[in-house]
Amino acid sequence: MSNSEDKPPNNYVESPATDIPTPAVETGTGFGVAPITRRWRREDMLNRGSLALRGLALLFSLLAFIIMASNKHGDWKNYDKYEEYRYLLAIAMLSTLYTAGQALRHVHELSTGKQMLEKRTSAMVDFFGDQIVAYLLVSSSSSAVPLTNRMREGADNIFTDSSAAAISMGFLAFISLALSALISGYKLSTQSIWTYTVFQVNLVHQQLRGATLIARPCSRFMISTTQTLSSGV
């Protein structure tokens, strides 16, 4: 028999080479590119949504102001003879000025990419401003509803119809600003979490830096001690 027949069969089968996935390298701060990109896209979407809602609030507030200011038809059919309607007119004018200023600021920031205010300050102004003006809108509109209903029981005319239209515009402006306040609250909460996270990362970085500064003299001392002992031996 030949030598090749005496050898035992080679049962070892070489496994095919497989590519071992390389784990993603994380940055020292723990933040990747993808989360930051998603955060930027989410902020841009929220800013555009907030701008759209404030634009609607501006439109409804302006309509409420114009309708009520022109609601003069002589005798008892003049808005300025009723405190509720004067209150609604004043709040509609305030809401128009506020939403116009906010809309212009957001348009400037979106077009230029520059923040007129610090992010946290801007989020606080948006949140509290939207809430206050929304509350004033629903308060003024609600106070004018009972008066309009009593007038409509006696006579339904152009004066009461105009008053009802102004009240409806006030309620629509309130809904727009209330939704904008929800977005502003979410932005404020995420801004607070992000600020706290960055603070913690900076704190850990400072601690690691301090530990490194302390470790360097210790390592030098250990090296010099070792060299001294080695030379003595």
UniProtKB/TrEMBL annotation:
It comes from the Eukaryota. The chain crosses the membrane at residues 51-70, 85-104, 125-145, 165-186. Its main location: membrane. It is found in: Cell membrane. Residues 1-28 are annotated as: Disordered. InterPro entries: CASP_dom. It is a multi-pass membrane protein. Residues 46-175 form the Casparian strip membrane protein domain. Pfam families: CASP_dom. Keywords: Cell membrane, Membrane, Transmembrane, Transmembrane helix. PANTHER family: CASP-LIKE PROTEIN 4A4 (PTHR33573), CASP-LIKE PROTEIN 4B1 (PTHR33573:SF57). Belongs to the Casparian strip membrane proteins (CASP) family. Homodimer and heterodimers. This is CASP-like protein. It comes from Salix suchowensis.
